[in-house]
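Possible race condition, two jobs.
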Amino acid sequence: MTALSPYQQDLRDRLLAVPVVPAPAPWQPVFESCAAVGGLLGIGFAAHPDSGDDLVMVVSTDGHGLFDAVTGERIARDRDPDPETPDPAADLTCPGLGPVAGSRVHIAGLYGGGLHTTATGSWHVEVVAPSWPNERVLLSHGSGMPYRDPHGERCWHIFHSHYSELRAVGFSPSGRTLAVATSSDVTLWTRPPSP
């Protein structure tokens, strides 16, 4: 096994030392802590056809659910979806539920795919694993460099996946929702639309 360089060791030590902190303003948590979703396979985003608000599709071994990303309210549920959705050999989509029925929702998670890692306003999200397999989610703003800037100024350690396997991390296409999905739950943050 190759030893870490002094730079790599310093970086690892700094990432291990920073505590989990709340996401900075204007980000607000949607749930008090998280929404438990046993057997979570993946998540995706859709826009409400009337309001344009973000909706979060959650796919698990117990079915599919659709959540309002601002309130956290579950607005639709399918306990018996097609067992091949998302189809890992196709386009990683699921049929929409509730207000987005009749459309397809792209899903990121266990089967692959990905969510946006940047959002308007110069927000960035990154996953690091200085103590693999326990992964950490870093949120940064502006030219915030998670490897250089002091923690809590332009970079924040907002989530530590030490109890479940990380499935997907990223922003909605609108950039108004940030999601972290693990094999057991989903954590959401929201921010108001840009003026």
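Job #2 (started ~2 s after job #1):
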Amino acid sequence: MNPQPQPPPAGTETGFENGAVTAQVLRQRYESGATIAELVAVSGLSYGTVVNRLHEAGTEMRTSWQTRRMRDEQARRNLAAHLRRLYEQHGATLGELAAAGAGTRRAARRLLIEAGGTPRTTQQTLRIRSAANATARKKLAASLRARYEGGASVPELAKECSHSVATVYRLLREANTRMRPQHRHGPARRSGKRS
């Protein structure tokens, strides 16, 4: 008994929108990794019709094992490309790539090389990280300066950005902030001589 074809989700491009489900279109989709069941679902044809049209087009049919392997290879290529983007565009380490799906640092390195990436030395990674940290630190210092010059106190700024008061003072000095005089805490001093 043929499985009931499921209509494709609304808004998806299937290649069958104009109603012409040619043997060549089916063959292209099949050779790109689609299963017969998926072709039945998107085309609206019966299982037997899809198989017959694939044979008409001279398609070399796969076993289910070959389809799984093909899909695993595609998934591996996709993962490798994703890891390369993380590594090159975001400065991720091999350890972070392992946590992002590679499993181990060794597997991450292998996938990175498969995707055409070049592993960095530890020093190169540290330079990338310190440059990114320096940029973020300058941005934070500028933001703190603007808030401080707007009237916020150093303890308030420290609480808002979850840094110590000393760190906020350091960041304000790095941003060349003109500091206000510090307020004295405790009882006010008496002016004049004691009697």
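Confidence is low (pLDDT under 50) at residues 1-14.
Logs attached separately.
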